[in-house]
Design a protein that fits this description.
By secondary structure, this protein is mainly α. Helix content is 75%, strand content 0%.
Length: 212
């Protein structure tokens, strides 16, 4: 899914399926599926406010999105934890793999070391790539199922509700302006949502440069 066709995708009969599937896949596997989940959540909030609704009359129900999104994120993340618990060592032992390589695993592991399990799982929701890596990593290091589930639920609720309702409120407040520049606004949102990742990459680069 590209940034450009997100408006047409969410303005279809399969909008809810697309939203929930992307959230489950992105949080369950260390993959970048093309559209960051946070951008999708904000856009879903905008569409729920009536932004981008075409003449076809398709409309996203804010209550359904607000309930379904965290459930999809929780289910996807639980699968990621299970995957890491049972198959993590084999999956990430591929140095030449674009997605399943030890370096990506190390980048997520630093979050757990820095913040602790709870904060790492919650904060990791807001950072692309880490969002998918933190869950299998938690399984690999044997974070207890009950403890992981608690923080998984807390993180999913904070992440999804903040972005969905934020987009909904903004959409209702600035409906006319947003409707005119919807595609451009989505692209800007997408850029903003990857800033935490770029900041972490920059810090990592500075650290390596200082140590070299």
């Amino acid at each position: 899914m590209s940034f450009i066709n997100v408006t047409s995708a969410l303005n279809s009969n399969y909008a809810l399926v697309i939203i929930f599937a992307v959230l489950a896949i992105e949080t369950g596997l260390p993959l970048i599926v093309g559209l960051p989940g946070d951008t999708l959540l904000i856009t879903a909030g905008l569409f729920s406010a009536g932004i981008g609704v075409s003449a076809t009359g398709h409309h996203i129900n804010i209550v359904v999105v607000a309930i379904g999104a965290p459930l999809a994120a929780i289910i996807g993340s639980q699968f990621g934890h299970w995957l890491g618990w049972n198959y993590g060592v084999k999956i990430f032992n591929r140095p030449n793999s674009k997605f399943f390589n030890p370096e990506r695993l190390k980048s997520a592991e630093k979050y757990i070391q820095k913040y602790g399990v709870g904060k790492a799982i919650v904060l990791g929701r807001f950072i692309p790539v880490v969002r998918g890596l933190i869950n299998p990593l938690s399984g690999m290091i044997r974070v207890a199922h009950s403890r992981y589930f608690f923080w998984n639920v807390v993180g999913a609720l904070i992440w999804t509700q903040t972005l969905i309702w934020g987009g909904y409120v903004v959409g209702n407040t600035f409906a006319d302006s947003i409707s005119k520049y919807l595609t451009e606004i989505i692209l800007v949102i997408a850029g903003i949502t990857i800033l935490p990742l770029l900041f972490e990459i920059f810090k990592e680069w500075r650290t390596r440069k200082h140590l070299s």
